[in-house]
Amino acid sequence: MIVPDDAFGRRRTDADAPAIPHRPGVRWWYAPLTELPGVGKATADRAAAIGVHDLGDLLEHLPSRYLAYDSARPVSGLAEGEEATVRVVLDSISVIPTRRRGLKMVRAKVHDATGSIAAVWFNQGYLAGVLAPGDELMIRGQVKLRPSRQITVKAHEVLGSQASEGLHTEGLVPVYPATEALPARRLRELVDAARPYVSSAPEVLPQWMRERVKVGTRADALAALHFPRTAREPRSARRRLAFEELLVLQMGLIAVRRHDETARRALPLPATGEITGVIRAALPFTLTREQERVAREVARDITRPQPMRRLLQGEVGAGKTVVAALACAQAVEAGAQAAILVPTETLAEQHLRTLDSLLAPAGIEPVLITGNVPKAERERREMAVATGTARVVVGTQALLVGGVEFDRLGLVVVDEQHRFGVEQRQALAEQAGDDGMAAHLLYMTATPIPHTLALTAYGDLRVSAIRGRPPGRSEIATRWVRDAEREMAYDDVRAELRRGRQAYVICPLVEDGESGIAGRSAVAEFTRLRQGPFAAFRVGLAHGAQRPDERRAAMAAFAAGETDILVATTVVEVGIDVQNATVMLIEDADRFGLAQLHQLRGRVGRGEHAGTCLIFAEPGGEEGMRRLEALVQTNDGFRLADIDLEIRGEGSILGLRQSGATDLRFARLSRDRRTLAQARQVARATLRRDPHLEEPEHVLLADAVRRAFPDLPRLLDA
Ligand code: ADP
Ligand code: MG
């Protein structure tokens, strides 16, 4: 199996994207900005720097907000202290030195039919050379009537130039995301210059669909966003663009799934019970109802000749591994092999141990293949995989990328895979399996994903969830400790240690001053705690900058009860299971993501003793407060994920930036839930009616879907 260079990780550049078929009438959408009157190469380059390459990009560069100015008023009617817009003629202009050094003031006399007033600009001396008596101006500014009538200018524009009247000074004035080189004012002018094009913006949504979901045309939406007449217009226009974006995404995801299910064959892996039965009988516990349900779903999926694409969500400790082990056992009893991929070598070693004990009763010995295995031994193991002697293989991604040959690979389990996007998943799916056969794929993640996000980021997968934790687990009480209560909290921890329990202390940094951020570091806390508050106890240290064997030794000593406290960074987030540890103390908790904090606290309360999580934080902002309060209030990872989505937005939760097609420009999942549901429904209905989007009215829609998934050129073919 050979993987092309860019099958994993690397995002393709625009240059790799397939050429877009030009349709009559939409050619201008891709025309360079220099097509616009008065726009030269310098401006076009500055626009390119913010991702605006052509006219279409410019019209999709949406305002982030609007300044609510009113319409021009007569000069005589201005009131003291108000902000207002006037339309005036310039009588005279001069630069006036002020008492403050370096501060220049430009003062002009202006009038309209009702009266006159002085207009004042600060620090724009050049204006005296630009504006001339007789110029007609629109001025927006702060009005002062005493001691003399004056308006301090916030924005002005010269009428009779190319731009539309009132562009910067009247009505709802759009504010664009801008740069110093290309300020919002200039962007406003560019969009204004492109105004004549708006009405012929290519329409992606066919008329029947617009009628059905009651949205207007793309042209109307763009006009409403750039040139709104009422404050409400932009809102429904943005929803229109969000709908289209989500629709295109859902269609692509449905097409990916359809492609997998119809165009590709997989080895059916029927259950005989021969091995799965032995393993089930040997389990030291009974599966929970949730585990049973998910195990059944997986068992049924992999009996089929279509490849399974399933995501299994469940928090750390929810019991996903058992489900995966049963699926592997079913693959083996069907005469196939199973591979389990994990992100790190440490995790691979841990999984090997777990699987080993689960599968041993049936006489199955999983083998480990990672970069840590010495070459000769690795070759021996690879041979066992190639000949089919090794039935279950555990390894990192390198296992597939590195060209390990399988005899008969039937199932691939990918643990903690939320860092991949849909294209990477497809690349993996193409690689897995042999003889043109696709492997069944089971993805597992401990990061609870809000339903809406799962539908967009994982819409190509079927999703199962194990909620909650297995019975017999104690709850975790979470307390937010403020600085003044630190010593009292240490008292509690010492009492717990004296009872024979153990504690983690998690710090955001390895060493003080790291990356120039303030915050507690593991190295400094280690020294401080073992000399001060915990001098009577044995303290260990584990962090990512240690040599791997040193770190492993520290974690092993803690696991064996040879140390009472483990001071660490998030290296303990995954891959450590110490049932005697009951306290988790997290320093500068506001530095961590909500999902990460939740995962961290899942490290305690794993055995018979109840767990306590103490979070130390003095967050600066409202957002930080809300997140920590949520953490204290609920132990439900899925609820927390929803809350996180609402507070922070989707991009920051999963690092979706890296996942290509699922980047969203117009939609916000936290507020567009209903739009998403509608888009899914319409996407399904449309593809049922016109599976390859071949009808003339769907041609632009098909283009849009292909553009959104540039790495999957044959997406709509199957
Ligand atoms: P995950 O992979 O979801 O993080 P694991 O499968 O590793 O969780 O399970 C965590 C722990 O819970 C393991 O020690 C496992 O043996 C135990 N466990 C799993 N299922 C059950 C169950 N139904 N009842 C009791 N303990 C369970
Ligand atoms: Mg696990």
Produce a short descriptive summary.
By secondary structure, this protein is an alpha/beta fold.
Account of the 3D structure:
There is one protein chain. With 718 residues, the protein is α/β, with parallel strands linked by helices. The chain folds into 5 domains: 1-64 and 180-200, no CATH class; 67-175, Beta Barrel (OB fold (Dihydrolipoamide Acetyltransferase, E2P)); 202-263 and 679-718, no CATH class; 269-466, P-loop containing nucleotide triphosphate hydrolases (Rossmann fold, 3-Layer(aba) Sandwich), CATH 3.40.50.300; 477-635, Rossmann fold (3-Layer(aba) Sandwich), CATH 3.40.50.300. α7 crosses α8, α8 packs across α24 (673-689) and α21 runs antiparallel to α22 (637-648). The relative contact order is 0.10. Mean pLDDT is 84; it is low at 1-24 and 651-662. Residues 320-321 line the site of magnesium ion.
